[in-house]
Amino acid sequence: MFSKSFRVKSNTVIKGSDRRKLKADISTAFPSLSVEDLSELVPNKEELNVVKIYAHKGDAVTLYVLHKNPVLFELEKCLYPTVYTLWRYPHVLPTFTTWPPVLQKLAGGADLMLPGVVVPLSGIPEVKKGDCCAVKVVSNRAPMAVGTATMSSAEMRSLGMKGRGVSVLHTYMDSLWAFGDKSGPPSIPDVDTEGVEATYEEEEEEEDDDEATEGNSSRISHKHSPVLTEQMDALLLQCFLQALKSKVKKSELPLLTSSFLRIHMFSCCPSGKQLDIKKSSYKKLSKFLQCMQQQHSLVRVKELSKGVESIVEVDWKNPELRSFRTPKDPGIEEASVEVGRAEGEKPYHPPEITTLYSVSSRLEPLFQDAKKRKGTVLQPAEVRAIITDYVKRNELVDENNKNYVIINPILCDCLLEKSEYQEVEALKWDDLFSRTLYKMQHCHQLVFPGQPPIVKKGHIEPIDISVASRGSNKKVTMIKNLEVYGLDPMAVSVALQHRVQASSALNPVPGSKDRVLVQIQGNQVQQVCKLLLGWQIWKPPSCNVLIPCRVCNLLHCKISS
């Protein structure tokens, strides 16, 4: 909110009555503050200014300034402490911990994402959605940012610490901090994260050493044992040969090396293993492919531009490639159902989906003889039988042409529009049935193996797969409505993460309390469809309300980009 400069509207001294009201509001909002703390924060005799400002996005904010430092700000009738106040009273708010480099992102206007939260031994603080909370860095209890929780602590844990955690309003080094004396944060030792920063620094040093001495085997062995490195080299070669032999086609050449790795090699990795080039002796894909070209003569790689390479030729007659036999392990491609599922949990089975119809108030007279009242749920065959019985019992079949049914007053009121009252005297049987079903309330029934049927109103929602742009040239794939089919979004997220080797996250669906969407980096529509097809999410013959996917023929999949 204060990442950019704001405009001051007014600056006045607070009145005595407003001072007492402010002190009462602070006591209510922050009950952990003692009476002495309140007296220091809102002194009775010292000058306290009320500054009304407009943030760069137009939000009206009220600041309370003491000794030239903003101590509180009020937004939409909610009080928030500034970092100046939190440095004096760090215990006021529940506080999340993050790494020092994240602070710069927060000051630039970013929110705190849960993957960037450092979880101490005591766990994350307990908060509810919308609660005011603070953000600090490891090894220092002095808060560096203030915001509101986007979800409860229980939801954060259930989502596997993925997604947006804190909506940041104010940070150290932003324009609100610059409105004060611009003093720096104090150093307050943090017992909860003691040792975490040392681990972080050691990891950074190891990464720097690894980059600086990429070709030095002694450095590599410092981080990964020779056995693990040899195993990763063997796995890399196996996936490479399997991808060339069973995945890549001549028509696909030339093929970008990045696409070859992401689409073909990762999908050949056996289940239970993870392909990580950084843990191999090659460290980079370009070096591995260079070895495959020079020492094995399997491919020819050409550099299109700086940092962009393409496989332009494959030696299909190479003895090493021809003698390679695909391992029996089906890999992630066929065993992806197992990924992300807890040990001992039953395998996923798709539900049986049946289209049903409910008697509406307008059609109740038509179903009265069959003793079907408003709200009764029927299958299409039952509706057809009831309508046929009604027509025959009332002798409405046209004697001259038995393909037509004569319209009586009840059929007229139930099925015809007002403009048709004087024009339509008879309907064909098919038209009669279709009009009846159209006027009824659509429902659907889900039957999961071993569970009682679930009947819901309306059409069943298809699995929605969409591709959105993030930033200038980045794309993300989002999948919604997985819960409708009994799919665990977390399991789908983990399976996709292993399949495409890209980061994924779970985010709440706007406007829905109990649903989340899976978000994964890149355009992964094809991979998502293959995964769901492997889980046998298809459309039963009895269900005729869903749209087939034009990309993958997945009948419950709606593609938009």
Automatic annotation (TrEMBL):
It holds the Pfam family Pre-PUA. It comes from Oncorhynchus mykiss. Residues 463-536 form the SUI1 domain. Keywords: Cytoplasm, Initiation factor, Protein biosynthesis. Residues 191-213 have a biased composition (Acidic residues). Residues 183-222 are annotated as: Disordered. Residues 352-439 form the DM2 domain. One of its GO terms (biological process) is formation of translation preinitiation complex. The keyword Cytoplasm applies. The keyword Protein biosynthesis applies. It comes from the Eukaryota. Gene3D superfamilies: 3.10.400.20, SUI1-like domain. GO terms for molecular function: RNA binding; translation initiation factor activity. Belongs to the eIF2D family. The gene is eif2d. SUPFAM superfamilies: eIF1-like (SSF55159), PUA domain-like (SSF88697), SWIB/MDM2 domain (SSF47592). InterPro entries: EIF2D, eIF2D_N, eIF2D_SUI1, Pre-PUA, PUA-like_sf, PUA_eIF2d-like, SUI1, SUI1_dom_sf. This is Eukaryotic translation initiation factor 2D.
